[in-house]
Amino acid sequence: MASQQVLATRVVLAPLTRSRSYGNVPQPHAILYYSQRTSKGGLLISEATGVSDTAQGYPDTPGIWTKEQVEAWKPIVNAVHAKGGIFICQIWHVGRVSNSGFQPNGQAPVSSTDKPLTPQTCCKERMMEAGFDGVEIHGAHGYLIEQFLKDQVNDRTDQYGGSLENRCRFALDIVEAVVNEIGADKVGIRFSPFSDYMESGDSNPKELGLYLANALNNYEILYCHMFEPREKIECPHSLVPMRKAFNGTFIDTGGFDREEGNKAVAEGRADLIAFGRWFLANPDLPKRFELNAPLNKYNRDTFYTSDPVLGYTDYPFLDSSA
User: Fold this and answer.
1) Would you state the pLDDT for residue 1?
2) Dist. CA 78–CA 8, nearest whole Å
3) Distance (Å, rounded) from C-alpha 61 to C-alpha 122?
C-alpha cells in the first residue's frame, strides 16, 4: 500500500504532460523517461492520463480506458518499481478544454453544464491492473473537476452549482467513488484554488481551498497536492491555511527551486515539494539537490513535441555514467 511505503526524499516528480503517447497509448520510450527520473524511495506522479475516450483534449496524451493502454503502462510502471520508486497515476478529464476534434464521433465536449452526472471511475480494474501504487485525481488547472469548483465557470442551478458546497460536490463525489474502489491509502488529489487557468477563476479562492482541505479529511486520503499561485510576491504562503486544515500529507508545487523548497518544508508549509520543469531537465534532480550541484536548463521548445528522444530522454545526468 502506498501509505506504508517510506519515501527517501521530499522531492516529487510533478505530473507533466509530454505529448508523446501516440494515439493515446503510452510508448516504450516512456520506460526510459520515467526510469531515468526514479530513485529508490522516490515518488513519481505520472503525466495526466485520460479516464475515457471523452477525456482527451490534447494530441498524444496517454489514456488508461482500454486494455491496450493498460498493457502499455505495465512495463513503464515495472521499470519504476525495479529502481525502488513509488508511482502514482494522475487521472483527468479535460472537460470544456477539449473540442469536437478530440471527441468520439465529433460530439461536443463534456463540461460543467446543467446535466445529470454520475461520477465515473475505472481505477480498480485499470490503474491497479497496470501496477500503479495509487491514483491522483486531477482537480486543477481549469479541467473538468475545476470547471465545477470555480464560480466563474460553473453556472449550474442544480445540486452541483451555486453554493460553495454544491460546487465542491462533484469533486468530493469522485474522491468518495475512487476511495470506495481502491482504498483511501492509495488516493491523492490535486487542486489549484488560486489559479485561473482556462478562464477558470474563483471569486474567493481561499475559502474554496479551505473548504476542500477540510472536506477531504472525511475521506482520510493519502495526500492533498496543491498548486501555488504564480504571483508569490503578492500572495506569499497562500496555501498555509489549507496545509494546516488538511490532516494528511500535503504536497506543494508551483515554481519552487531548491532553496524555496527546503524553506517550505523547514517552516512546515509542506511535507513534500513537487518539481516539474527542473525534474524534466534533470533526471537525477534529488541527487543534484542533495549535492547542491548545478542544474541543466530546460528547453521549453521541446516540452510538448512528439520526438521520443529530443527534450525527453536526452537530458544529461550529473554523472554521465548513471
Assistant:
1) 44
2) 19
3) 17
86: three-class secondary structure by DSSP:
strand
One-character DSSP codes across 178-241: HHHHH-GGGEEEEE-TT--GGG---S-HHHHHHHHHHHHTTTT-SEEEEEPPS-TTTSTTTTHH
d(CA 258, CA 247): 25
- Residue 89: beta bridge partners? 135
The residues pairing with 49 across neighbouring beta strands, listed in sequence order, are 91
Active-site residue set: 143
- Any alpha helices (H) in the chain, and if so which ranges? 29-36, 67-82, 128-130, 144-149, 164-182, 205-216, 240-245, 258-266, 277-281, 285-291
- Which three-class secondary structure state does DSSP give residue 12? strand
Q: Which of 37-41, 94-98, 233-237, 269-273 has the lowest mean pLDDT?
A: 233-237
- CA dist., res. 207 & res. 302, Å (int): 37
pLDDT of residue 104: 81
Give the position of cell 503517447: 21
Name the grid cell of 35: 526510469
Task: Indicate the SS3 state at residue 301.
Answer: helix
Distance from C-alpha of 258 to C-alpha of 266, rounded to nearest angstrom:
12
In the block, which residue shows the cell 461536443? 108
Whole-angstrom Cα distance, residue 143 to residue 202? 14
What's the rounded Cα separation, in Å, for the pair 60 and 48?
11
At 123 the pLDDT is 55
**DSSP tag of 9:** -
Question: Which CA distances in Å does 250 have to 15, 41, 117, 222?
Answer: 16, 17, 29, 9
Cell numbers at residue 36, please? 531515468
Residue entry with cell 476511495 = 179
